[in-house]
Amino acid sequence: MKTLHKLLLLSSLTFINVRSFGQEVTTNPYTANNKGKIFIYWGGNRGYYSNSDIHFKGDDFDFTVNDATAHDKPKGWHVDYINPTKMTIPQTNLRVGYFITDNYSVSIGVDHMKYVMTQNQEATVTGNYPNPGTYGEVLPNGKTKLTEDFLMFEHTDGLNYVNAEIARHKDFSKYLGIINTDKIQFNGLVGVGAGVLYPKTNATVLGRERYDDFKVAGWGISAKAGVNATFFKHFFIQYEWKFGYIDITKAPIISNSNAYASHHFTFNQGIFVVGGIFKL
Hints:
disordered N terminus, 8-stranded antiparallel β-barrel, mainly beta, 9% helix
């Protein structure tokens, strides 16, 4: 009788263990694998830029604003981010990607940042330009004040960084005690990217009519790290911090001329996006 009880108890434990094991490997059939999935996201950013020496070259001027400061142009939480007619006005990020393995994705996207040279700052300007002192720019201390009459310089129709990235993704839900990742899943990611700059530079140099068109004007490289929370298999929110280097080699600045500006600088970008992930 004791032997029968032992056999029944052993059979019950075996059934429970097999059933539990079966549940463990089949609970998350969708989120357990990423290979073959595509994702798309949209959101906004804040940009931070290092100082840079901005060189301006034209037919009758050739000068450099040394160690110029700059900032972004945030719009904050605004309906324009979801207004189809105004979605390109704020600082935005769009990306589409594909998982080539469970842990690696490739993607293409546009980081629509905005770069504004700080107006009325006092800077050291070297080189030459016509009629110095007539723009309210010359200061007694030998510095030059970047007045609106003298110089305005922005990439505000977009410091558009069009880039490709490769990223590694890691699910760390189990470390947070999450069993069913089909309901909620937490991921980390790191990646690197490279691309071209396609800005529409807004510049007024010595009061002359600006060039007003988009043009490939340089290149950039970047690295990023981020965290992701995915809900009900398909929808996610994500925060990334991206660091990079941009070299604007030749941005047109004056209409109907060969005048251009060039500079290089590093940037930091905080990015918050919402998106979806699906299988093809």
